[in-house]
Design a protein that fits this description.
It is a single chain. It contains 18 helices and 29 strands. The chain has about 625 residues and is an alpha+beta fold. The protein folds into 3 domains: about 1-190, Threonyl-tRNA Synthetase, Chain A, domain 2; about 230-280 and about 310-520, Bira Bifunctional Protein, Domain 2 (BirA Bifunctional Protein, domain 2), CATH 3.30.930; about 530-625, Anticodon-binding domain (Rossmann fold), CATH 3.40.50. The strands form 7 sheets. An 8-stranded mixed beta sheet has the order 11-16-17-24-21-20-18-19, sandwiched between helices. Strands 1, 2, 3, 7 and 8 form a 5-stranded antiparallel beta sheet that branches. Strands 26-25-27-28-29 form a 5-stranded mixed beta sheet, with helices on both faces. Strand 5 and strand 6 form a beta hairpin. It is globular, with a radius of gyration of 30 Å. The two termini are about 45 Å apart. It binds one RNA strand of 75 nucleotides through strand 2, helix 5, strand 5, strand 7 and strand 8.
Length: about 625
RNA sequence: GCCAGUUUAGCUCAGUGGUAGAGCAACGGUUUUGUAAACCGUCGGUCGUCGGUUCAAAUCCGACAACUGGCUCCA
């Protein structure tokens, strides 16, 4: 996109590391040309963790080609060529593109540098056009680069992907070769160690190992996770936390159906703009006739008739809550009205976008809608933010950014509802709350929702993976579309503001995040297996004592079980440790005699024998306090 | 959706045209145990699905499906 093009000023701000990576991209192109002189190059920028270069080439580059390419790259680095900058005229650049010289090692008659030609067209008149040359390789490039190829530290090619020229699917598809580079070998090694740790913590891997959830593409469908009992335990703990927190904050809970008539989403404005992201409608006749399955094989339930009605699975809860607001006349005395629900929504994400629990088609949202008068807005919004911070503290989320997305004047009436005064008012209020609360935020113009400004919460797990977890939006448009009003003090009907908020996001994404955040080692209150009692041997007296402990814990709603079999104690401990059971109580004859338990905590090892009563008391307290 | 890769037992994987394998898990038995795996045995697979080539296909070819990595950060 033209408007996203980096300005020359921005380019001069490239960090040293970005210069190294961008330079390494040129070296990559040089190496590919040594092996395949006909290759045509498009773009080769530095990116977050490295760099890439897009290349058009008949030969399909595979990881098996990497050693040969890397060897050529090393030779180019060893040659220590200078990155020479030259300003040229547009005419000269066009001529060099047509001869195939640009993005090549020499002129290539009959093989013009077509992508470079396209790139040239994107450079505005009046902006200088520059070449960078290392050895024989000349590239159209604004720079900046390191001084010499020898200044590139340690690098490695990582993977191949495909990408459309200029990101547009109507353009030719190119091979994108990714690599990464660092100043030193050690930094490169650390980077790969971090990636390895990320793979180890992958929520899909740990989720399967611990039996938290499963995805069954054949029967249930892709993107529709099934929560297994152990994942269900985490889910219930989160809901309990949300219910307690919201109750204390004056929310009321509601429950709404999973589907609604077409009219609902026409009124909300989500149809037709959001239709692509919704599951296709179910069509059926009014009047209570039984459903006729016209095409059972295709799985659709259809009844065509003159008065047929379409039902849609809900992609969001807000319209349902709006109808609850509308269900009875509202007075200013009813406000703020805070409707909360763990609502299940369905979104038809494209097949290629599905990703474990992070991107799914059925999602349980920690949703709530707060209806308030404008003068109540700041206090309500502030309270929502405080709730976010409270949650971050419980989960030990230290690194986060709130992305405050605002409107842009040129989008009013098109991308955004045409209410300039309300936009200014709500944006000022939100900004004021963020500043007063000293919250870490960045303001992003021209990214608001069509009905109001929004805040997306981005968090980083301990391994540095970024997640957009939660969202918090102001809505001053949709309540109007639904005709929602309250009777104010002055006996005038007014439209309330609505705050959409979901501090815990969805169960799917939040639990996915927590799995990676904790590497599956959940704190006691969240752990699917909180306590396991292990007997040394299966002597009946021991087993009876151990069973009593399990029963006592379960009576206090602790997820406790026992391993009373004939396996050796080492085997029982190994199994419990691999299952990441939080607390293990080992019971042998010595413990039975002393009315004690031997305490072992996952990750902490054997903590020795302690009085039974004290251990149970402390477990209950730790769970109640949601101790980290 | 598009491009590429992958798909063999519940899990992790071996098997490149000639009788489908291992470890773990599960199940049965033996073992009576003090802090990360006791021992023996048994069960378990239309090699993702469908079609083609071949005397013969997990293996070669094609289609489809699912999964994984990308497709935004642009000379």
């Amino acid at each position: 996109m033209q408007e996203d093009r980096k300005s020359l000023d921005d380019r001069q701000k490239l960090t040293d590391l970005e210069r190294i990576r961008h330079s390494c991209a040129h070296v990559l192109a040089t190496a590919i040309l040594r092996l395949w002189p006909e290759a045509q190059f498009a773009a080769g920028p530095p990116v977050e963790n490295g760099f890439y270069y897009d290349v058009e080439l008949r030969h399909r580059i595979a990881p098996e080609d990497f050693p040969a390419i890397e060897a050529e790259m090393k030779a180019e680095i060893k040659a220590n060529h200078v990155f020479e900058k030259r300003i040229v005229t547009r005419a000269q650049a066009i001529k060099d593109s047509e001869s195939g010289r640009l993005g090549g090692l020499s002129e290539r008659p009959g093989n013009p540098s077509k992508f470079k030609l396209g790139n040239l067209e994107a450079i505005p008149e009046g902006e200088p056009i520059s070449y960078y040359q290392n050895g024989d390789f000349i590239d159209l490039c604004a720079g900046p680069h390191v001084l010499r190829t020898g200044n590139i530290g340690a690098f490695k090619l990582t993977h191949v992907a495909s990408a459309y020229y200029k990101g547009d699917e109507r353009n030719p598809q190119l091979q994108r070769i990714y690599g990464t580079a660092f100043k030193t070998r050690k930094e490169l090694d650390d980077h790969f160690a971090m990636l390895e740790e990320a793979r180890r913590r992958d929520h899909r891997k740990i989720g399967a190992e611990l039996g938290l959830f499963t995805i069954d593409p054949d029967y249930t469908g892709p993107g529709l996770p099934l929560w297994l009992p152990k994942g269900g335990a985490i889910l219930e703990e989160l809901e309990k936390l949300a219910k307690e927190t919201e109750f204390a904050a004056g929310y009321v809970r509601v429950k709404t159906p999973h589907l609604a008539k077409e009219k609902m989403y026409q009124t909300s404005g989500h149809l037709p703009y959001y239709a692509e992201s919704m599951f296709p409608p179910m069509e059926l006749a009014e009047g209570g006739e039984s459903l006729k399955r016209e095409s059972a094989q295709a799985g659709s339930i259809t009844q065509r008739g003159n008065d047929s009605t379409k039902y849609y699975l809900k992609a969001m809860n807000c319209p349902h809550h709006h109808r609850i607001f509308a269900a009875e006349p509202r007075s200013y005395r009813d406000l703020p009205l805070r409707l909360a629900e763990y609502g299940t929504c369905y979104r038809y994400e494209q097949s290629g976008e599905l990703f474990g629990l992070m991107r799914v088609r059925s999602l349980n949202m920690n949703d709530a809608h707060l209806y308030c008068a404008p003068e109540q807005f700041a206090a309500e919004f502030n309270a929502v933010n405080e709730m976010y911070l409270k949650y971050f503290k419980i989960f030990g989320i230290e690194k986060y950014v709130m992305r405050f997305s605002t409107s842009a004047p040129e989008g009013l009436g098109r991308k955004y509802v045409n209410e300039p005064a309300l936009w200014k008012q709500t944006e000022d209020m939100v900004r004021g709350v963020l500043v007063d609360a000293k919250i870490n935020f960045v303001e992003v113009p021209n990214e608001a929702a069509f009905y109001g400004p929004k805040i997306d919460v981005q968090v980083w797990s301990v391994i540095g993976r970024e997640f957009t977890l939660a969202t918090n939006q102001v809505d001053f448009a949709v309540p109007k579309r639904f005709g929602l009003v309250y009777k104010d003090r002055d006996n005038v009907e007014k439209t309330p503001l609505c705050i959409h908020r979901a501090p815990l996001g969805t169960h799917e994404r939040f639990i996915g995040f927590l799995i990676e955040h904790y590497a599956g080692n959940f704190p006691l209150w969240l752990a699917p297996d909180q306590v396991r009692v292990l007997t040394i041997g299966d002597d009946p007296a021991l087993v009876s004592y151990a069973k009593g402990i399990v029963q006592e814990l379960r009576a206090s709603l602790v997820r406790a079980d026992g391993d009373f079999g004939t396996d050796k104690i080492n085997g029982k401990i190994q199994r419990a440790e691999l299952a990441k059971v939080h607390t293990m109580l080992v019971i042998g004859p010595r413990d039975l005699a002393a009315n004690a338990v031997s305490l072992r905590v996952h990750g902490q090892g054997n903590l020795g024998a302690k009085p039974k009563g004290a251990v149970i008391e402390d477990l209950l307290a730790a769970i109640k306090e949601r101790r980290a």
